[in-house]
Amino acid sequence: MSFTGKYELQSQENFEPFMKALGVPDDQIQKGKDIKSISEIVQDGKKFKITVTTGSKVLQNEFTIGEECEVEMVTGEKVKAVVQLEGNNKLVANLKGLKSVTELNGDTITNTMTMGDLTYKRISKRI
């Protein structure tokens, strides 16, 4: 299954408490909470390039399945991570105490991030 495509955020749960726990400043949380971000994914075999545009903020990460890479978090911090593919539709990464699972089902991508007992969920649809 190919992840390649553009996806628009449809809904999210626990955005504010999760961003606060990550250390994102309140003004950025308020600016970002109502913006429908666009995620663009380009998959070439095991190589991925993911660009998330939220208003004027652009976050871009590239990685190869199973290889260590440097990933920029929403805080701007860069951390080392290894992204794994589970089955043919689930990307899993552990970044500095945070677990990220991105699952593709048809035209819907569900991204669930867990840190301690906090879970942040984003649902995006292919556009």
Task: Write up this protein.
By secondary structure, the chain is mostly beta strands. Strands 4-3-2-1-10-9-8-7-6-5 form a ten-stranded antiparallel beta sheet. Strand 3 and strand 4 form a beta hairpin. It is globular. The two termini are 17 Å apart. The model has no long low-confidence stretch (mean pLDDT 93). It comes from Eurypyga helias. Binds free fatty acids and their coenzyme A derivatives, bilirubin, and some other small molecules in the cytoplasm. Involved in intracellular lipid transport.
Structure characteristics:
127 residues; mainly beta; Lipocalin; 2 helices
Q: Secondary-structure element order, as H and E?
A: EHHEEEEEEEEE
Measured as a percent range, the helix fraction is 10-25%
Q: How many domains make up the coordinates?
A: 1
From the 3D structure, determine the CATH topology: Lipocalin
Q: Average pLDDT across residues?
A: 93
DSSP E strands, number: 10
| CATH homologous superfamily descriptor | Calycin beta-barrel core domain
Strand content: over 45%
> What's the N-to-C terminus distance?
17 Å
CATH architectural designation: Beta Barrel
CATH class: Mainly Beta
Shape: globular
The main sheet orders its strands as 4-3-2-1-10-9-8-7-6-5
Any chance you could write out the topology, listing elements then pairs?
Blueprint: E1 5-13, H1 15-22, H2 26-32, E2 38-44, E3 47-54, E4 57-64, E5 68-72, E6 78-86, E7 90-95, E8 98-105, E9 108-115, E10 118-126
Antiparallel strand pairs: 1-2, 1-10, 2-3, 3-4, 5-6, 6-7, 7-8, 8-9, 9-10
